[in-house]
Design brief:
transport, 826 residues, two-stranded parallel sheet, Rossmann fold, 5% strand, mainly alpha, three-stranded antiparallel sheet, ABC transporter transmembrane region fold
């Protein structure tokens, strides 16, 4: 030590120890990372993924530590005469890179033991930084010394990394002790079949999107197929987001808020996208701050080039000298641009993911509402051209076009609003900061030029945005009309082909398409004008600012520093001025779409008879608990046998029917009071639409007892099917009350049979419990066994077996203990 620093030079000895620490770590970490990557086997599939705590905090701290050490190396280069300090400063970033490489290797190979080594290294680095801080303070350095700030930041970030590594090492040791390094349960999903690995990737791979490179390489070599995308992670599946949003929506609907009519879906949106949406806002804020560094650094670089070089002083590097050095500022600009790119892309990724999740959840809500929607729901809206929903006078095909737009366009508008929502506060904040910086460089002339440009261009942009909004509404109407006509044509394509009407309907569709293309062409012209005005605003504000500066000041005051810095700041105004009108437009469209979706979700459902709050009998209505149709979950039948094996079992069950014991293998029947009626009507009046005097049916007093066969006889159009619809709750209750027996179940067999493609057994059991004897008795009671034996696959239901479909529709009700249920046969 004396040979390097001499006797009694404590600061030099501390720097020498720090240099030795980083050099030794550089060698050991690089060698260990190479050995782990090359020699350590990959973990087995059952091991699962790494779940180390605090990796985001560690990653941020480690990147910040690398940046601080890089700035420390730049500060040491300015005083290159101090050899030991220069060596320590240059070895520190290299050691940090080696530590990052080793941590990535440990993550990929699931090796936890070297975490203790990384923790000790960062702990010793923090101790070296603390020792150097003590030496600087003992030497009497003030806060103007840049090395004092660098060592303080190094101590903070190195301590954070060391603490997180110690916690992770403790967790791994505890897990190994209690679980013998093997998870107790196998993973529910194949690790290698998941392409979206963002949530489980290493922090460095996550922020740089390096985890996406294998998929990009595969797409570069061969065209990507759907199999290459793999499965979605379990947490990203659509039913997960649907259930989350559905719970949030129901909590808001059931909340005891007096102003329920003013409730908005935006509250649900905020709760749905939290907290990643707010994290994206923080990243957006820091990204905009990093974006202001290049214009300011450009002025420093120009000043440094213009000023004559001066010999470096003997005292330590100060903050002012450090920031005014052109080469240091070039390094700062490089780090700032890298940080801006990382922050901006990760912010965009977060809002994109949350917007997509919200869109998926809304599509699930709309789909589920379509399954529950009452036939008389459309009549709840008044006939108004400005209404987001269609009125009852419009056709079913037009309603289908509306639902198509709700699922596609309206959910897309809300997703786009989530994507650009942060611009609503980021644009004013960024413009204000740029105006202040322009004022410091060019004085009042910058404010004059900017304000003049905003006054001239912004109203024109908002006018164009209003035209785009109005034109978008016309496009939506034309799209609804075209989709409805196309649906009608596809439904009647056989008749059109039979009568050779292809040219006639083709002309009608082309006319509708021409009208839609006319509005689309207008939309393209409006967007081009909006882009042109934005690009012209930059030139206009620059011209007005420099002209005003020449008239208000002397021409000699317009130096190269002010000109280039002003141009760089003016260029920063281009993106906010371009995005501002688009942001306002998208938010307006999202508000309109949210209103449309909310009104649709507020429509009554068929299994809930509309209650009249003014009626005294409204409280007497009883509802059956509705079972949610989990249409979004990948359903797999309990029985995995093939159709051939199922046929053998079915045939054997019927043949051995006489040899079976009736007491065995029966579905248990609950004890139910048979004296209570299944359905009870009291002075009830139903209609197919609210405030609709036509197509009404009145039931004064009717009790439907259990265990009885009741036949409704009448002429065509007398209301037989309407009575069944009233029992099912598909008609609007104008007055009176309807009481259902909640302990009973209901089975409905309509005129058009509804069956699943598959085996007869699947259509009878419908996912319920399999009872062999009951299944055989149902087939014998219906007398369908001889008919089923005539099928090619015996029990395989095919499209040609149309004559059996109405009879098969009755069997699920018989299988489900029809003597205790209400069965409606239309």
């Amino acid at each position: 030590m004396e040979a390097v620093c001499g006797r009694g030079d404590a600061p030099c000895e501390v720097a020498a120890l720090a240099a030795a620490l980083h050099a030794l770590h550089l060698y050991c970490a690089a060698l260990a990372a190479a050995l782990i990557i090359c020699c350590a086997p990959k973990p087995p599939a059952w091991y699962g993924r790494v779940s180390w705590r605090g990796q985001n905090a560690r990653g941020v701290a480690s990147l910040a530590l690398l940046a601080v050490w890089a700035l420390g190396a730049a500060a040491a280069v300015l005083r290159a005469s101090v050899r030991v300090s220069l060596a320590a400063a240059l070895l520190a970033p290299a050691g940090g890179l080696a530590a990052a490489a080793l941590h990535v290797a440990l993550w990929s190979r699931r090796a936890a033991a070297p975490l203790l080594y990384l923790a000790l290294y960062h702990l010793l680095a923090a101790a070296a930084a603390a020792a150097r801080i003590y030496q600087h303070l003992h030497a009497g350095l003030d806060v103007q010394a840049i090395d004092l700030h660098i060592q303080a930041l190094s101590f903070i970030f190195a301590s954070i990394v060391a603490i997180v590594d110690c916690i992770c090492f403790y967790d791994e040791v505890t897990k190994s002790f209690y679980k013998n390094c093997k998870p107790s349960a196998a993973p529910t999903q194949s690790v290698h079949n998941v392409a979206y690995e963002h949530c489980d990737a290493h922090f460095y791979s996550k922020i740089t999107f390096f985890w996406l490179n294998p998929l990009l390489y595969r797409g570069y070599e061969t065209p990507l197929e759907s199999e290459d995308l793999g499965e979605l992670p379990e947490k990203e599946r659509s039913y997960k987001h649907y259930h989350k949003f559905n719970k949030i929506y129901k909590d808001q609907v059931l909340s005891k808020d007096e102003l329920k009519e003013k409730q908005s879906l935006f509250r649900c949106y905020i709760r749905m996208v939290w907290p990643n949406f707010y994290l994206a806002g923080i990243l957006k804020l820091f990204s905009d701050v990093m974006g202001l560094v290049p214009p300011l650094g450009l002025a420093v670089i120009i000043d440094y080039i213009a000023a004559p070089p001066a010999p470096p002083p003997a005292e330590p590097v100060t903050v002012s000298e450090f920031l005014n050095n052109g080469y240091v500022m070039l390094l700062i600009l490089t780090l700032a641009l890298i940080a801006q790119a990382l922050l901006s892309q990760n912010s965009t990724h977060l809002v994109t993911v949350e917007g997509t999740r919200l869109k998926t959840a809304l599509q699930g809500m709309i789909y589920d509402k379509c399954m529950r929607l009452a036939p008389w729901a459309a009549s709840m809206n008044d006939v108004d051209e400005e209404s987001p929903l269609l009125s009852a006078t419009q056709s079913a095909q037009a309603q289908l076009g509306l639902l198509t737009n709700l699922v596609s366009q309206d959910t897309y508008n809300i997703m786009s609003c989530v994507w650009i929502c942060h611009y609503t506060w980021a644009i004013p904040l960024k413009v204000s900061a740029i105006l202040y910086l322009l004022y410091t460089k060019l004085g009042v002339s910058a404010i004059i030029g900017t304000v003049a440009s905003i006054v001239l261009i912004t109203p024109l942009q908002f006018y164009i945005g209003k035209k785009i909004s109005d034109n978008s509404k016309e496009i939506a109407k034309c799209s609804d009309h075209r989709i409805s006509k196309m649906t009608e044509i596809l439904q009647g394509i056989n008749v059109i082909k039979l009568y050779v009407w292809e040219d006639l309907f083709n002309e009608k569709i082309l006319n509708l398409r021409e009208l839609e293309l006319k509005h689309l062409n207008k939309d393209t012209i409006h967007w081009n004008l909006l882009t042109f005005t934005t690009q012209a605003s930059t030139i206009l504000v620059t011209f007005i600012t420099f002209t005003a500066y020449v008239f208000m000041h002397t021409a000699e005051g317009l130096t190269a520093v002010n000109v280039f810095a002003g141009l760089a700041l003016f260029n920063q105004l281009t993106v906010p001025l371009l995005i501002l009108p688009v942001t306002v437009l998208m938010i307006i469209q999202a508000m309109v779409s949210s209103k449309r979706i909310k009104e649709f979700l507020d429509l009554p459902e068929s299994n809930n008879v509309q209650e009249d709050e003014d009626s005294d009998d409204a409280g007497n209505q009883k509802q059956k608990t509705n079972v949610f149709n989990e249409a979004f979950i990948d359903h797999k039948p309990e029985d995995e046998d093939s159709f051939t094996e199922t046929d053998k079992i079915d045939n054997q069950a019927v043949n051995n029917l006489d040899n079976d014991n009736d007491s065995d293998d029966e579905i248990p029947s609950p004890t139910i009071d048979d004296t209570q009626p299944l359905v009870k009507f009291q002075n009830a009046l139903f209609s197919w639409g609210i405030r609709n005097d036509n197509s009404q049916i009145e039931v004064d007093d009717l009790d439907i007892p259990p265990g009885k066969l009741i036949m409704v006889v009448g002429a065509t159009g007398s209301g037989k099917s309407s009575l069944l619809s009233a029992i099912l709750g598909e008609m609007y209750l104008e007055r009176g009350s309807v009481t259902w027996n909640g302990a009973r179940s209901t089975w409905y067999a309509g005129q058009p049979p509804w069956l699943l493609e598959g085996s007869v057994r699947h259509n009878i059991v419908l996912g319920g419990s399999w009872c062999r004897r009951r299944y055989a008795r149902v087939l014998r009671a219906a007398g369908l066994r001889p008919d089923l034996q005539l099928l090619p696959g015996m029990y395989l239901l095919q499209g040609r077996a149309t004559g059996l479909r109405p009879d098969l529709q009755l069997l699920p009700g018989m299988y489900g203990q029809v003597q205790r249920n209400l069965t409606l046969l239309s």
